[in-house]
Amino acid sequence: MTVELPVKRLADYSVFSKEDVEAIFELGKKLKGLKVVHVNATAYGGGVAELLMTIVPLMKDAGLDASWEVLEAPMEFFNVTKKLHNALQGADIEISEEEWELFEKVNEENAKRLNLDADVVIIHDPQPAYIPYFRSGTHTKYIWRCHIDTSTPNLKVWNRLTSKMTKYEKALFHIMDYVRAPFDNIAVEFPPSIDPLSPKNREISEAELKSVVDRYKIDVSRPIITVVARFDPWKDLFSAINVYRKVKERFDVQLAIVSAMAKDDPEGWIFFEDVLRYAGVDKDILFLTDLKGVGHLEVNAIQRLSTLGLHTATREGFGLVISEMMWKEHPVVARPVGGVKIQIDDGVNGYLRQSVEELADAVCDLLENQSRLREFGKNAKEKVRKTYLSTAHVKRYLEIIKSVVK
């Protein structure tokens, strides 16, 4: 399925990073008309989809013939790929022969069905990873973009998966810690980005803020600790609740858990119910999800209304929700996992801590020191501006594409 794209203009981003925009236009002149197709599992509900909704239109504006295709697959396929995702992050999971056969069958069908006649095809994550294997006799160059923490994968699953991933020219990982054979010689460190003009990150008016406050009955007179995360065991929302409970012993705080249910994550519904039960009847734990009408603009408002961010994931490919919170001039307290540890500079724009007790102490430190809270917030926004905006991301993509087609 071809995804319908919005129109985005690079010129609108010059206010944030003029140098990157100029570099993109220069690269675009050399790649003008080149056909590039991105392929992933879903058009909504996850970080990859959000990225592509900005990256692909900006590639088009730079002069490339860029498009985005999404897999067509039954729910049983997504049950298998969720197991695959967890295994690549280290879970001790068995994938049966029948499940591997379904995985290959869906990839083979999509290799024929999707519009993939292009100069470069960029495959995102494991779901469509076998598409190149099932395409022959084309001039296409393939790039694999991995958004998962593969630092300690289940090797049996990793080796089986990668055994047929032999046609890739480059493999892009958030950080080099994630790189393993057979990609050692083609791997590139490749962090993602946030779109400063998207509904989730743009500046919003006082009226829009007030609308969200009124609709969700948010008490802005007390500090709000905000966690933005999918309902996924790796996000460890139980620890987030435990941190909040410890902080609550010293400060009259609220915890906002903000989330969306993704199409390709059937396990999420079960975990959502588990977290709800664990939270109990505490009225200061706010569940703000798309089930209650929370969309990107509402997430933006909630983050801006927050005092600081909290992230308790035990595995994290990158964690763009951290950059999103930092962009709103709020520090984040988080576990030092995956891409989290390259976004947060400990003691500069947030704190990196491991245990529930350490995380709670770090939150309390910021609540006790308002000047530090503000200083960390300013540092946080500047870090994102320099490193993790869409323009830097598009520039990196064009450089990689140029390297594989020259």
UniProtKB/TrEMBL annotation:
One of its GO terms (molecular function) is glycosyltransferase activity. Keywords: Carbohydrate metabolism, Glucose metabolism, Glycosyltransferase, Transferase. InterPro entries: Glyco_trans_1, Trehalose_Metab_GTase, TreT_GT1. Residues 38-179 form the Trehalose synthase N-terminal domain. It holds the Pfam family TreT_GT1. Its EC number is 2.4.1.-. GO terms for biological process: glucose metabolic process. Residues 217-382 form the Glycosyl transferase family domain. Homodimer. Belongs to the glycosyltransferase group 1 family. Glycosyltransferase 4 subfamily. This is Glycosyltransferase. It comes from Fervidobacterium pennivorans (strain DSM 9078 / Ven5).
